[in-house]
């Protein structure tokens, strides 16, 4: 390679770096991010350019434009659905101090007339999902971040194929990055049986070709628009506790029957349209669940297509509204400074703030990064617990006596800004008592962290923790 060619390549990189730096200054979320990207892109474009085009963006181009034409939450069908909710007295009006901002963030209403079942761990969850699939008469909507062609994955596949052969419409959506290793034979087997199969391809579109930083992290199953499942489980044998590396897999899902099931399918409708360019014909005729507890529920989809950071706003609202109890459970607890500040204020208000996280995760960097935030949490007076009975993967928040959330969002930058997520907000004291009992049991399998646990760690350990924390925005 000649010197002239090397000089041309170097000049080309610096040229791209300069214009990418301008883009970073205009679009980065924070001044600190703008400065960091701009300096890197100008000084070392050979390294910074690939990193910026893969990890540097926090908005998902194309999805927003597509949905403006056919946005489920503003479509005629869903507008009619909301009107029917009102006519049938299926709208719920819990504590408006909390409910009103949550509804505005979600762009979907709290509904009444729901049954909600708390599903603890994989066997309960998939037994319930498989029973629901067996009841399907019209359609089944299935969406998971990770699908594996193992024992559980093949059982799901066989059940979906069986329903498709009965004439039930089956739509199967998976994330192209989360399910990267999913065999073609698995997908072709579903397609051959009449199941509609699409990947949620975040690299779709010219502007997204090199953007690998977004994920569709949602886990949703909807049957006939009358019942739905949301929670932390993906499809793989490890979610049944059959992973040698992480032993017991502790996770939580919920089953919802009633009007809120159709709010959940709004999220699927939008994701399916991006992946397939098909507008699904779904049921938008909400009715109260039979023999139920009349539970209030709201679905909150969030993602990088949001004009404002819906996931961030929602969890900040949870923290700020707490007056007596705030219990947060997350496998990946890597929050922004604003969340630490909000938690500090909650502690000062006298709120019982507890954070439960796994001592060991499936992400090496997160396992160490947790220690940096544990240190900060102890300093502000929050209680922190290491879960020791295997891998804690549930995403649950309990606020006072009135609200509980179960969903797919972790307490980290990826879920707040980069992932497509869905969180269910349940307003019912009886259900929340069940959640509290479940978490009390989890606390009994945990160890409360003390200052001594932090102090006794070596300097090199603390140094590695701080280095790991630097990668927090992309963990």
UniProtKB/TrEMBL annotation:
Domain of life where this protein originates: Bacteria
Enzyme class: transferase
Enzyme Commission number(s) from the entry: 2.7.8.-
InterPro entries to which the protein is assigned, alphabetical: Cardiolipin_synthase, CLS_N, PLD-like_dom, PLipase_D/transphosphatidylase
One Pfam family matching this protein: PLDc_N
UniProtKB keywords: Cell membrane, Lipid biosynthesis, Lipid metabolism, Membrane, Phospholipid biosynthesis, Phospholipid metabolism, Repeat, Transferase, Transmembrane, Transmembrane helix
Its membrane topology: Multi-pass membrane protein
Bilayer-crossing regions: 34-55
Localization of this protein: Cell membrane
GO biological process: cardiolipin biosynthetic process
Domain PLD phosphodiesterase: 212-239, 388-415
Gene Ontology cellular component list: plasma membrane
GO molecular function, one term: cardiolipin synthase activity
Protein name (record): Cardiolipin synthase
């Amino acid at each position: 390679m000649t010197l002239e060619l090397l000089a041309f390549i170097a000049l080309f990189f610096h040229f791209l770096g300069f214009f990418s730096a301008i883009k970073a200054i205009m679009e980065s979320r924070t001044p600190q991010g703008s400065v960091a990207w701009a300096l890197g892109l100008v000084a070392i474009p050979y390294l910074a350019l690939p990193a910026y085009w893969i990890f540097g963006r926090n908005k998902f181009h194309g999805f927003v434009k597509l949905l403006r034409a056919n946005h489920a939450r503003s479509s005629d069908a869903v507008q009619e659905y909301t009107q029917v909710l009102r006519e049938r007295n299926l709208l719920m009006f819990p504590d408006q101090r909390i409910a009103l901002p949550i509804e505005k963030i979600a762009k979907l209403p709290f509904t009444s007339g729901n049954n909600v079942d708390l599903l603890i761990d994989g066997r309960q969850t998939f037994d319930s999902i498989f029973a629901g699939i067996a009841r399907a008469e019209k359609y089944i909507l299935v969406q998971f971040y990770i699908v594996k062609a193992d024992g559980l994955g093949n059982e799901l596949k066989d059940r979906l194929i069986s329903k498709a052969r009965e004439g039930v419409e089956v739509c199967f959506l998976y994330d192209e990055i989360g399910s990267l290793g999913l065999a073609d034979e698995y997908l072709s087997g579903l397609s051959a049986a009449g199941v509609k199969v699409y990947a949620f391809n975040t690299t779709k579109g010219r502007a997204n070709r090199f953007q690998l930083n977004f994920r569709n992290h949602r886990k949703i199953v909807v049957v006939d628009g009358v019942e739905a499942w949301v929670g932390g489980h993906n499809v793989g044998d490890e979610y049944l506790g059959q992973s040698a590396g992480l032993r017991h897999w502790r996770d939580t899902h919920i089953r919802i029957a009633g009007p809120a099931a159709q709010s959940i399918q709004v999220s699927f409708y939008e994701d399916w349209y991006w992946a397939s360019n098909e507008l699904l014909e779904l049921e938008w005729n909400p009715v109260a669940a039979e023999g139920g507890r009349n539970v209030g529920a709201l679905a909150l989809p969030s993602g990088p297509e949001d004009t404002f950071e819906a996931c961030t706003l929602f969890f900040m609202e949870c923290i700020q509204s707490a007056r007596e109890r705030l219990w947060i459970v997350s496998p990946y607890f890597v929050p922004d400074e604003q969340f630490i500040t909000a938690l500090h204020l909650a502690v000062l208000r006298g709120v019982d703030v507890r954070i439960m996280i796994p001592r060991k995760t499936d992400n090496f960097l997160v396992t160490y990064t947790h220690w940096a935030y544990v240190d900060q949490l102890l300093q502000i007076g929050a209680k922190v617990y290491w879960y020791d009975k295997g891998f804690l993967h549930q995403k649950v928040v309990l606020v006072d006596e009135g609200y509980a959330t179960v969903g797919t969002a972790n307490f980290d930058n990826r879920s707040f800004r980069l992932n497509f997520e869905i969180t269910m907000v349940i307003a019912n004291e009886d259900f929340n008592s069940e959640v509290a009992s479940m978490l009390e049991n989890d606390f009994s399998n945990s160890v409360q962290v003390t200052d001594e646990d932090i102090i006794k760690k070596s300097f090199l350990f603390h140094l590695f923790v701080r280095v790991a924390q630097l990668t927090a925005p992309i963990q």
